[in-house]
Design goal:
Blueprint: H1 2-13, E1 19-24, E2 27-32, E3 39-43, H2 51-62, E4 69-73, H3 78-87, E5 90-102, E6 114-118, H4 122-136, H5 144-151, E7 156-163, E8 166-176, E9 179-187, H6 196-209, E10 215-220, H7 225-231, E11 234-244
Parallel strand pairs: 3-4, 9-10
Antiparallel strand pairs: 1-2, 2-3, 4-11, 5-10, 5-11, 6-7, 7-8, 8-9
Helix pairs in contact: 4-5
Length: about 250
């Protein structure tokens, strides 16, 4: 999962000149100072970064050069890392379950009225953005040029589902060799509880299997966990997300 994250970060870092990139000592951070996305830091802590690297990351956060949100994998190093983060005012705000599924286990049949397509045109991308803005970012504006650039990259796929003529659900996939990472999976509130998200994910799995992708990975929130288990995803581990407390870090 972390390898797919890193590929996604690499692609994002090249998509817009406004994005600050901080990559040092096991930390990889992207931050758009003007927009809500991206603002996130990865910490590759299988081998815990040295304390000095944490301190350098903390300085970068204070100087607005690194994002004050950080993802840590659950392993034997987490307690030590969490101690350092708490000393600097970071607190755990969310946890994600990492999950994976081999695509040969998928038998896709769309039993809903959902019309699903892969985004190729600017008009389709605007529909995709409208779903993601409302579903994931509380209607905050996203910098469209980032996604317009990502649309040109063959490692990125945008998928959207329409209920009738209305955009209803969406996801983004990052393709890395034989693996696809599924991100930004969301359904608009008025279309939830209809099975649309499940069908969207199943469509993506089948779609990528036909392209030679053998494995799909994702991070699930608590609310999505049962759905992904029902589809067939298996739990691989957990990530914890920490945020530096304070309005100036939002």
């Amino acid at each position: 999962m972390e390898e797919n994250h890193s590929v996604f970060f690499d692609l994002l870092s090249k998509a817009n000149n406004n994005i600050c990139s901080y990559k040092h000592g096991g930390f990889y951070s992207l931050m758009d100072k003007k927009n809500v996305f991206p603002k996130l830091t990865l910490c590759y802590n299988e081998l815990l970064p040295k304390k000095q690297y944490f301190q350098e990351y903390f300085r970068a956060v204070e100087q607005k050069e690194a994002a004050p949100y950080i993802i840590l994998a659950e392993n034997e190093n987490l307690i030590l890392a969490e101690k350092l983060l708490k000393q600097e005012g970071f607190r755990a705000v969310e946890s994600w379950t990492t999950m994976s599924l081999f695509t040969n286990q998928v038998n896709y049949v769309n039993s809903t009225d959902l019309h699903i397509l892969t985004v190729y045109r600017a008009e389709e991308l605007q529909h995709w953005l409208s779903v993601v803005q409302q579903g994931l970012f509380n209607s905050s504006n996203l910098e469209t040029t980032i996604f317009e650039q990502l649309l040109l990259n063959n490692k990125i796929q945008f998928i959207i589902g329409f209920a009738g003529n209305e955009p209803a659900c969406a996801l983004l996939a990052v393709l890395n060799e034989s693996t696809a990472g599924l991100y930004m999976i969301t359904t608009l509130p008025r279309f939830r509880k209809k099975g649309y998200a499940s069908h969207l994910v199943n469509y993506a799995l089948n779609h990528f299997a036909q392209k030679g992708i053998t494995r799909c990975v994702l991070q699930s929130t608590r609310s999505g966990y049962d759905m992904y288990k029902h589809i067939g995803f298996q739990t691989d581990g957990r990530f914890f997300i920490y945020w530096k407390i304070g309005k100036e870090y939002m």
